Each structure stands twice: as structure tokens, then as C-alpha cells.
Amino acid sequence: MTAGFRLRNVPLLSRVGADRADTLRTDVDAAVAGWADALLLRVDRRNQVLIADGRAVLHRATDAGDAPPEDAVFLGRLQDGRHVWGVRSDLQPPDDPDAQTQVLDLRRTGHVFDDVSAQLVATATALLNWHDHARFSPVDGTPTTPIKAGWSRINPVTGQEEFPRIDPAVICLVHDGHDRAVLARQTVWPPRLFSILAGFVEAGESFETCVVREIAEEIGLTVTDVEYLGSQPWPFPRSLMVGFHALGDPQQEFAFNDGEIAEAAWFTRAEIREALDQGDWSSSSESRLLLPGSISIAREIIESWAAAD
Questions:
Q1: Which of 142, 200, 196 is nearest to 166 (CA)?
Q2: What pTM value is reported for the model?
Q3: Domains of the chain
Q4: Is the peptide bond before 237 cis (omega within 30 degrees of 0)?
Q5: Are 297 and 243 in contact (CB under 8 A)?
Q6: Is 24 helix (H, G, I), strand (E, B) or coil?
Q7: In 138-282, which ranges are continuous DSSP H helix?
Q8: Which of 132, 105, 138 shows the shortest CA–CA distance to 281?
Q9: What is the pLDDT of residues 51-88, one digit of tens each?
Q10: pLDDT tens-digit profile of 159-210?
Q11: Which of 102-116, 128-142, 257-271 has the lowest mean pLDDT?
């Protein structure tokens, strides 16, 4: 019986590798004073970064000027005390000319990052995506100005302050309490790409209620015993994935009510373990199942259920 399983590991994008140093967001003088020794993470318009040796490439901040650019966002402080900022810009070669670099998208290949890099890139991506879409006041359309080291924006006319928007979504593994779990394929995915079920939380709705509603809408199953597993930021552009598992009845027929799901099926633990051994969606495997990559909380949930006795 695996009804009570838990995540084996903290999801990658939820790991803490640097001090967020939130007090420096309001102590502007202290934040700017650290600029001379600070490091800079560049994120391009496709939310890609450069990596070298499993770490995000960080440049000398002073290469971008004598002070933080207006659109720079403060990401935190490393163990050695240096500040790290993020900017939206074209990618540039690392300071070390001998470094072997790759251009990587966090969404597809984040498993190569260490914890510090994963945290910095996830935070920078979330903040920069928000700034890209929050340049005007939602109240009166006045152009807003970034403040608090990029952690909020203010309307200079009214003083109205806006903060980064986060859209919560649930993601849930449905299983029978024993040896079978549901995996599904969205209509826009290629054949053989399967994952667990997810959906955005509606206004006035709890996470648990959302799980029940989304699964009924997407595959027609009535689930019970909804239990929380963990959460993960998903800054594409601004989501927070909240993970659950729930019990479903394999005797109940599937019904694809909202048109998002092309197919779904119950798979045994052995089948899912075999698919996990074949890699992930990027694999060239001919496996019947191709599952999400390690950057996603979906992978951690599936792996944790598959490993349960």
C-alpha cells in the first residue's frame, strides 16, 4: 500500500543554495555598495543562460556599469558574501576564456545545475518575466518604475506598489493505493510523452478542491484522499506548482471532458520504473512511455511513487 508515500528529494527548483538576503532589497545603499564585487547573471529573451561545469556563468557586475542598471534584479548573496544580480540581456562569453560553455534552457535541462545556480536562475527568470509584462500600472496605465532592487514596481503618480505575480497550479499523481498510477498525454504533446495531471487554481478555490475538479474535468475520474507532497516554482512565466497525490478507482472509465487530454491509462509500477530507466522526454528511447525530465516536480513525484514499496 503506497497511499502515504512522500517525496524522496526536494524538487530541484525548490532547493536553496544562496542567501536571498531580502533585507538588502529595502536597504538600497547596502545593496548598491556591494556592486563593486558583485556578480551578474545574464538571462536572454528565451530564458536561456550560459553554464560551465554544471554552474550558471556569472560575470563581473561592473562590466555592466558602475552601478546596477535600472532593470537589474537582486538575486541574493553567495556564501562568500558577494551579491548576485540578474539582467535580461544577450548572453556573453564567460570571464574565463578557457571555460567550456553551453547555452541551456532551465525548463529543459535544469538537472545539470547545482543548487546555487538552480535557485539563481529560477529567481532571475521569474522576476525578469514579471518585469517584462508589468511595465504599466494595471489601475490607470501609467508607466511604472522598478524599486526594491527589482522586487516591486511603483506608480510614480499614485504611489501604488505592485509585486511579482505568481499563478498557483496543482499537479497530482492519481494512483490506486497499490501498484497502478495514471499517466496522461496532452493533445499538444507528441505520441508517447506522458506525465501526471495539472491545472491552474481558480478564484475562490482551495488546492485540494482544484485537484478534484481538474482531474474530473481532464480525465473524468473522481478522486479522494488528496494529500500534499511538495511545491516548486515554475517561472514559465510565473507559476508555482503545488504537488499532490490522490486515490482513484481503476474501474471508473476515463472521460476527456475539457479537450486538453488526448489519452490516459493506468500503468503498473514496473512499467513506470522501466520508463524511468529509459531517461526522459529528451531520450531517443523507443519506450512506450517517455516521462518528464528531472527539472520538473512531476518527475520527482513519479520517481518517489515508483520507488515506494
A1: 200
A2: 0.92
A3: 13-162 (3.90.79.20), 166-307 (3.90.79.10)
A4: yes
A5: yes
A6: helix
A7: 207-219, 269-277
A8: 105
A9: 988 889 999 999 999 999 999 999 999 999 999 999 99
A10: 999 999 999 999 999 999 999 999 999 999 988 999 999 999 999 999 999 9
A11: 102-116
- Cell readout for 140 is 490607470
Average pLDDT over residues 5-20: 93
Q: Which of 49, 48, 47, 61 is nearest to 129 (CA)?
A: 47
Q: Please report the pLDDT score of residue 186 as a whole number.
A: 96
Nearest one of 192, 219, 191 to 275, comparing CA atoms: 192
Q: Which residue has the cell 553567495?
A: 78
Please, what is the angle between helix 269-277 and helix 297-307, to 10°? 130
What would the grid cell of residue 205 be? Answer: 478555490
Indicate if the pLDDT at residue 130 is higher than 80: yes
Phi, then psi, of 33 in degrees rounded to 5: -60, -25
Q: All 3 cell numbers of residue 108?
A: 529543459
Contacts from 3-7 at CB under 8 Å and sequence distance 24+? Answer: 3/175, 3/177, 3/225, 3/227, 3/247, 4/227, 5/245, 5/304, 5/305, 5/308, 6/229, 6/304, 7/229, 7/230, 7/243, 7/300, 7/301, 7/304
Q: Which three cell numbers stand for residue 112?
A: 545539470
pLDDT digit string, tens, across residues 24-48: 999 988 988 999 999 999 999 999 9
What is the reported pLDDT for 237? 87
Q: Report the C-alpha dihedral over residues 171, 115, 117, 85, rounded to 10 degrees.
A: 90
Q: In the chain, where do the E strands start and end?
A: 39-43, 48-52, 55-56, 58-60, 73-77, 83-88, 101-105, 145-147, 152-154, 161-162, 167-175, 180-186, 197-200, 224-234, 239-247, 261-268
Distances (CA, A) of 19 to 15, 56, 103, 157: 12, 16, 25, 34
Residue count of the chain, please give it.
309
CB 300 within 8 A of CB 309: no
